[in-house]
Specification:
The complex is a heterodimer of chains A (584) and B (455). By secondary structure, chain A is α+β, with helices and mostly antiparallel strands. Chain A has helices spanning 3-68, 71-78, 88-96, 176-181, 219-228, 268-318, 333-393, 398-430, 442-458, 482-498, 530-535, 551-561; strands at residues 100-104, 110-113, 135-144, 149-161, 164-173, 188-194, 205-207, 232-238, 241-251, 257-266, 438-441, 465-470, 477-480, 504-513, 516-523, 565-570, 576-583. Chain A is built from 12 helices and 17 strands. Chain A has a 5-stranded antiparallel beta sheet. In chain A, strands 7-6-10-9-8 form a 5-stranded antiparallel beta sheet, with helices on both faces. In chain A, strands 12-14-15-17-16 form a 5-stranded mixed beta sheet, covered by helices on one side. In chain A, helix 10 packs antiparallel against helix 12. Chain A is rod-shaped, with a radius of gyration of 60 Å. Helices cover 31% and strands 25% of the residues of chain B. Chain B is an alpha+beta fold and 455 residues long. Chain B has helices at residues 2-24, 41-49, 97-107, 131-136, 193-201, 215-220, 248-257, 260-267, 281-284, 300-304, 308-311, 322-337, 368-387, 399-410, and strands at 31-36, 54-56, 62-64, 67-72, 79-83, 112-116, 119-123, 144-145, 151-152, 157-163, 166-171, 184-189, 207-210, 224-238, 273-274, 312-316, 341-345, 356-362, 415-427, 431-433, 450-452. The chains are: A alpha+beta (584), B alpha+beta (455).
């Protein structure tokens, strides 16, 4: 991974981590604040309900008092026939703003009922079931209506009548209007469950709104409050978010739970806030990542670009081109020091290389001169002796002189021929032709080259050398110059045979290794030491007494012209193996 | 002191007696403003304009009108009706016996009618011992057609003007029984019960028709309540599938659960009578009968054990009818007490399906056959079809036929009588009546004897 990418990732990670931490911290803080606010709001609403409940109770008691003291009720109490007063409760209830008003005779039969006028003459169960004395304060009571049963806050008053007592029971329904009278904070709602059926039912749940409500998630909480008769708080999970519900039991005159007030505080606002914070975090994170990218780009322009330039220069140096300059890198600080040091290093490397090349060149010339001197000295020595013999033969008789003269001419001609041969070899190396590429079979070249030497190796008196071929049949053909390759292989074979003057084993192996073709020529000769291995391919270097030192140089030159590679593995006394790799 | 006390007391007594007599003395003049619903208004107006030969008084007895006497030979095959002499029509002309004979002949083509001086001789095709009752029916009122096509009568009032919702009557100055005390009568129709009650309370009307549920309110406002005999039957009619024979026991139970006495006494403020038959006892003359039914009422537990769809009913009432709704609500309470679930429907338009309907069936205060015929006509052909083959009694049918028809109607409890209701009027205190109530037992208006006290 490049430095730029790493730098980018690092900056992005730091920014992202910072945004996430800030988001989580703010979210946690918001949750805590909301929880505290929720507790306060719920407590305030519950207190408001209790206050409203008490106020309503007082109002109901006062209004029932007024009804009981009215002339109409006095007339009913004084009348023997109450039939004319069947609708009196409706009128009185309307006048006093009561939803429920029953005038009940001493025997418990209804004289007049505002909430159910047609029920006159039937017994009212609850007014006379408990204490017959006035209940000073209002209480919660289940009231039967024509279609349903409802909860009402009622008060009872008793009047003395001719035939016994007359009971006045009036009140207000605890219904949707009552719930709507409660002032709710945003996100809060209040529900009233009327516990008037044996089983918990959706229809018994009243809200301050007209929307129908799914009661199923609330049922366990309601059941628990009814059973325990204690205020209970629970978080309800709705499809659109959680809601904290505080449930209060509402008891009747006999202590039974007639209703449950449910004060709900929606967690939807908190969830929305957390969501907003989260999305803000995402937005800020995105912006920060974009800024980080820009920052990384800027930093890379100032930091990584010189580094990349240095890396590129280093790769160029590694590829062999040492003449690289990084003096155009615009930077400061450590990178500038590094660039200067790199510049100095390459400059010194080039200087060293030049000096080395020069030294090599001098050494080569010296070697060439030495070799030339050596090669020329041998044929020149007989020529000088012959010329000396001719000078001394001048004094000999003509017959003898002629004989010596003829013999000397033969010797001179032979010596000059040897000199010509030496000069020709050097000339040939200097004039290595460019390869002519075609599709050639390496195996064929190896076999043809080996066949040339088989007869020589089999000739009598020749040290016993076993020639073995191990050719890869899947080698195929490569692009190369067959003549030059053949010459290179023959040189290696000749070199190997020369390395085994006492006989041995010569093995040629061809293999295909991926995209290259390899030719390995192994002998069991005396091997090479390290110095010999280093200088083996240097022109005119030879370990043989009569070698020119050009054989392996020619092989290296051919391999190089084919974009191949040659090297040798050898240890002294354990033979040597020459490896050639050519592109397939 | 004692010497002067007696003459003083005598003088005071004379003054008081004079004041009382002065207050009780009829007063001529004024316009009576009368408001009523549309039902039967024109019929009552016609009764003030057109007269029969014989009429029925407040006690239900025959009374001379355009005829002075009536006699029949044996078997009622020939009747001699002596006519009142010098009766003036509203156009000032004198009503002649041939005019009356021609009118009755047109109404009864099978009668042989002849005039003998001031008398009519009527030979009905069959024995008609009740011919005077027939002549007392409003259908036999004498309306003389003039050349212009209009008709004139001889009643105490003549029609002065008929406009939208208002009928103006003017006193007939030459009425044979003396000019009415009132100068005029203004009859307004189409007013709702609540509007009428408000009008009479605020003095915009002198006499208005009211519902039984308004009686107490009217009495509290010092209005006088005058009523007719029962002229309406409030009843329940069952609809299929409840009207099938398979549900007869349910209908019987339902009918038996209704507390008619409470409805009559409390809901209708004692102005109605519990009904166990189609006709009120006062009209039919026979005692409430007991029907022999095969089905017996179910116990409450048996009703509760029924499937919900067999004990849950919808009772349909007319939405604008407060009386019907009050009665229906009470029936719903009774039904609930018996184990049924009854919901009262009062839809403004087309409502959902219903099982029982509460109907109000008016009938004439005439002979039982006609009254029962009115009731059967009110039920409509569909209910009559459900009741089976019941022949509508002909006019003049015997009480035995009426009783048989009534028994057949009630045997299956498809129709359940609840109460008989009279027509009620709230009358302002300034409206006085010389001879009997301002409202006749037949529901007619006795306005010829009504006067208005000075404001």
């Amino acid at each position: 991974m490049s430095l730029r990418n790493r730098l980018f990732l690092l900056v992005s990670a730091v920014v992202l981590l910072t945004v996430v931490l800030v988001t989580l911290t703010v979210s946690a803080s918001a949750r805590q604040s909301f929880a505290m606010l929720d507790v306060e709001r719920t407590a305030a609403l519950v207190e408001q309900f209790r206050r409203e409940f008490a106020d309503q109770g007082l109002q109901v008691a006062e209004r029932v008092d007024r009804v009981a003291q009215s002339d109409e009720v006095s007339r009913i109490a004084a009348s023997r026939d109450v039939a004319p007063y069947v609708n009196e409760a409706t009128t009185l209830a309307a006048a006093q703003g009561l939803d429920v008003l029953d005038v009940v005779a001493a025997d418990g039969t209804i004289v007049s009922s505002a909430e159910w006028p047609a029920r006159f003459g039937y017994r009212n169960g609850w007014i006379t079931a408990g204490r017959t004395a006035d209940a000073p304060a209002a209480f919660l009571q289940a009231i039967e209506l024509p279609e349903t049963t409802t909860l009402a806050l009622v008060a009872i008053r008793t009047l003395a009548a001719g035939a016994g007592n007359l009971y006045i029971a009036g009140g207000r329904r605890l219904d949707r209007k009552f719930l709507q009278s409660l002032v709710l904070a945003p996100g809060m709602r209040v529900l009233l469950y009327q516990n008037l059926q044996p089983e918990i039912s959706n229809r018994q749940l009243l809200t301050g709104e007209d929307d129908a409500l799914e009661a199923a998630p609330l049922e366990p909480l309601i059941a628990r409050v009814i059973h325990n008769r204690q205020e209970t708080k629970e978080t309800i999970e709705w499809p659109d978010g959680p809601e904290t519900v505080d449930a209060l039991p509402l008891s009747g005159r006999d202590g039974s739970v007639l209703g449950v007030l449910l004060v709900g505080s929606s967690g939807r606002q908190l969830a929305a806030l957390v969501s907003r914070i989260r999305w803000s975090g995402v937005a800020f994170g995105s912006v920060a990542i974009a800024l980080g990218f820009i920052l990384a780009f800027v930093i890379s322009a100032r930091v990584t670009r010189p580094v990349e330039q240095l890396a590129g220069a280093a790769r160029t140096v590694a590829d062999g081109d040492w003449d690289v300059h990084v003096d155009d890198v615009r930077t400061t600080g450590e990178i500038k020091v590094l660039a200067d040091a790199f510049e100095t290093m390459t400059r010194q490397l080039v200087d060293h290389r030049d000096r080395l090349v020069q030294a090599e060149r001098v050494a080569a010339w010296r070697e060439l001169a030495r070799r030339l001197a050596h090669e020329l000295k041998n044929p020149l020595f007989p020529l000088r002796i012959t010329i000396d013999n001719l000078r001394r033969a001048k004094s000999l008789p003509p017959g003898e002189f002629d004989e010596v003269f003829d013999e000397s001419l033969t010797t001179l001609q032979t010596g000059l021929g040897n000199l010509n041969t030496v000069v020709g070899r050097f000339s040939d190396f200097a004039k290595m032709p460019a390869p002519e590429f075609a599709q050639v079979s390496v195996n064929e070249i190896v076999e043809q080259s080996a066949s040339l030497f088989r007869a020589q190796l089999a000739s009598p008196g020749h040290p016993p050398v076993t020639l073995t071929l191990d050719l890869d049949p899947s080698l195929g053909v490569i692009r190369g110059d067959s003549e030059q390759l053949r010459r290179a292989v023959q040189n290696l074979l000749l070199n190997a045979i020369d390395a085994m003057p006492g006989g041995g084993a010569l093995r040629i192996v061809t293999r295909r290794d991926g995209a290259v073709v390899r030719i390995d020529v192994s002998d069991t000769g005396q091997g090479l030491n390290e110095e010999e291995r280093k200088r083996l391919f240097t022109p005119y270097y030879t370990t043989k007494q009569h070698g020119t030192g050009l054989g392996l140089a020619i092989v290296q030159s051919v391999v190089a012209d084919h974009a191949g590679k040659i090297w040798v593995d050898s240890d002294p006394g354990r033979g040597a193996t020459f490896h050639i790799e050519l592109p397939a | 002191m004692t010497r002067f006390r007696r003459p003083f007391l005598v003088a005071v007594s004379v003054c008081l007696a004079g004041a009382v007599l002065s207050a009780a003395r009829p007063r001529y003049g004024g316009t009576l403003k009368l408001e009523t619903t549309d039902t039967g208004a024109m019929r009552r107006v016609n009764a003030l304009v057109y007269e029969q030969l014989i009429t029925i008084d407040g006690s239900g007895m025959l009374r001379p009108a355009l005829a002075t006497t009536w006699n029949a030979n044996t078997g009622g095959k020939r009747w001699t009706i002596r006519l009142r002499h010098g009766v003036k029509l509203h156009d000032g002309s004198t009503l002649q016996p041939p005019q009356i004979a021609a009118i009755l002949q047109a109404l009864h083509g099978d009668w042989q009618i002849a005039t003998e001086g001031d008398a009519l001789v009527i030979d009905p095709a069959r024995d008609m011992s009740d011919l005077p009752w027939e002549l007392a029916d409003s259908s036999n009122a004498i309306a003389v057609r003039q050349g212009t096509g209009t008709t004139v009568g001889s009643g105490p009032f003549r029609i002065e003007r008929v406009a939208a919702g208002v009928i103006a009557l003017r006193a007939h100055e030459e009425y044979w029984d003396g000019r009415p005390f009132l100068d005029a009568v203004e009859v307004r129709t189409g007013r709702s019960s609540a509007e009428q009650l408000t009008d009479v309370e605020t003095g915009r009307a002198d006499m208005v028709s009211i519902q039984p549920t308004d009686v107490r309110r009217s009495e509290q406002r010092q209005l006088r309540i005058e009523s007719s005999e029962p002229l309406e039957l409030i009843a329940l009619t069952f609809e299929p599938p409840l009207a099938t024979s398979a549900n007869e026991a349910i209908r019987r139970t339902f009918a038996a659960a209704i507390d008619r006495a409470a409805i009559a006494r409390v809901v209708l403020q004692g102005r109605a009578e519990p009904a166990t038959a189609m006709l009120p006892q006062r009209l039919s003359g026979y005692a409430p009968f007991v029907l022999d039914r095969t089905a017996v009422p179910l116990s409450r537990n048996a009703v509760i054990a029924l499937p919900a769809n067999r004990r849950t009913f919808a009772l349909r009432v007319t939405p604008s009818d407060a009386v019907a709704q009050a009665v229906a609500q009470r029936i719903a309470v009774n039904a609930r007490d018996a184990g049924f679930m009854l919901t009262v429907q009062a839809p403004a338009g087309l409502g959902p399906r219903f099982d029982v309907r509460l109907v109000r069936l008016p009938f004439r205060a005439a002979a039982p056959p006609e009254a029962l015929s009115d009731l059967m006509a009110g039920l409509g052909p569909r209910i009559l079809t459900l009741l089976g083959r019941i022949t509508r009694p002909d006019p003049g049918a015997s009480l035995g036929d009426v009783l048989s028809a009534e028994r057949a109607m009630l045997a299956t409890d498809i129709i359940v009588p609840v109460v008989h209701v009279p027509e009620l009027y709230a009358v302002a205190p300034r409206v006085q009546s010389w001879n009997g109530s301002a409202v006749l037992s037949s529901g007619g208006w006795n306005l010829a004897n009504v006067w208005l006290n000075a404001p």
